[in-house]
Amino acid sequence: MSETEADEGRAETAGGPPGPGPARRPRIAAAIAAAVLFAAVAAVLALTTPWNPLPGRVPGGHAKADPSLDFTSAEIARSRAFDSAVNPPAYTGLAVGLVLILILGLTPLGSRFIGWVTTRPHRRWLRIIVATVALTTLLRLAGLPFDIWSESVLRRYGLSTQSWPAWLVDQLKSLGVTWVIYTIALLLLYALIRRFPRYWWTGAAAGGFVLVVLVSFIYPVAVEPVFNKFHSLERGPLRSELMAMAQRDGVPVEDVLVADASRRTTSLNAYVSGFGSTRRIVLYDTLLKSPRPRIESIVAHELGHAKRDDVLWGTLVGALGIAGALCLLYLLMTSPRLLRRAGVDPGGADPGGADPDGAGTAGRGGGAADPRSIALLLALVTAGTTLAAPVQNVVSRRIEARADAHALNLTRDPATFVSMQHELSVRNISDLNPDAMEYLLWLTHPSGPDRIAMARDWARMHHVQAPPPLH
Ligand SMILES: [Zn+2]
């Protein structure tokens, strides 16, 4: 940083609108950086998203998704009943969490709450840790009744196999993971804000980028084992067949792992996580009871993700998005109006904090450096992630459809694909007829009937017998 950093920092932390001249420079630069990074996200998404996952003309036109073709009326009724049972806790939980953090972040309540929980620890880093842990815990507690409600619905429908104590342990573990990730991120961020009051967004954007890549890379070995035990798929015909299929596909796979998902759920799933040396294909142990060709159909889908490096591209987009968001965050967190609204003195004076050197605990970096601004920060982060979710879902559904097309190309067996999708939908009690809001907010995958319709399209395009209705 330049030597004029401190002086410029003072000029800005004096509050009031930044005047023309050098004080505005970092804001303009941050705005340009945010615009460039978001443009890069848009460009990568536009260029790498398979907007047409099944290219080519379908003889006779596209098949329409129609649950009544393949699902019995009892299955459809059960899916509907489950949907109307899980929606209320899902929507109210989302709304309550959002409203709570927005109230805490955009009114003085959040900074007062942080002031209240951090009156004792005098050290700045300790106040950041306490504030982060307290706020994330408060938010989790507010969501807990809705999570219990959801879990009791899963239990009623036989999807959950957990005891309540085991479920609670899961919640605590997940809260622990949140504490670790948020605490590390916020300690680094607030150290940067204090050290470089006017250009912290450069370091934050670079650090955020690196942190997203790092977390995505170590997630399979650092976080997943907190929740599940993994073992290699046992030697035998299934393993040999899957490894041979991967080889045929030209995807180097060293191992197929099995997760002990049955300790928690009866639902079926498989996934790819990590990249490079941490990349793995994981099957839920619940899946292993399915007929072998169906498991192959699922693994062929996962190979599609591996072959296209979907995790790596997703990580890159996430990292660029976070970097852009941190530049935007700088613009918002240094806005005197927003800070005042959040009950934080834009000049950085911190009446609630004990401070041996008497310069205010925030001191350099202005109000943004005050740990009481963490509520505002979390509110902005939550608003950002909520707004980004529908975009992520639209892109994710296309990527999932491409992995389906890959599975069909690899297995050339649309009939088994359809029977597997049917089994997935029935076992997981998936929504067979999602409405627009559900597509927008929740659906990372096309619905079962969407996926089945695409398999029929694929069959007609490749002159393979189209799978007849299952029902
Ligand atoms: Zn997938």
Automatic annotation (TrEMBL):
Active site: residue positions: E302, D404
Cofactor binding, note field: Binds 1 zinc ion per subunit.
Entry cofactors: Zn(2+)
Domain Peptidase M48 span(s) in chain numbering: 235-458
Binding locations of Zn(2+): H301, H305, E400
Region (Disordered): 1-24, 344-366
GO MF entries: metal ion binding; metalloendopeptidase activity
Residues spanning the signal sequence: none
Database matches in Pfam families: Peptidase_M48, Peptidase_M48_N
Keyword Ion transport on entry: no
Record key words, sorted: Hydrolase, Membrane, Metal-binding, Metalloprotease, Protease, Transmembrane, Transmembrane helix, Zinc
Bilayer-crossing regions: 28-47, 90-113, 125-146, 174-193, 200-222, 311-332
GO BP, sorted A to Z: CAAX-box protein processing
Protein's UniProt keywords contain rRNA-binding: no
CAAX prenyl protease 1 N-terminal domain location: 98-229
PANTHER family (alphabetical): CAAX PRENYL PROTEASE 1 (PTHR10120)
Name of the protein in its database record: M48 family peptidase
Record organism: Actinomadura darangshiensis
Lineage, top ranks: Bacteria, Bacillati, Actinomycetota, Actinomycetes, Streptosporangiales
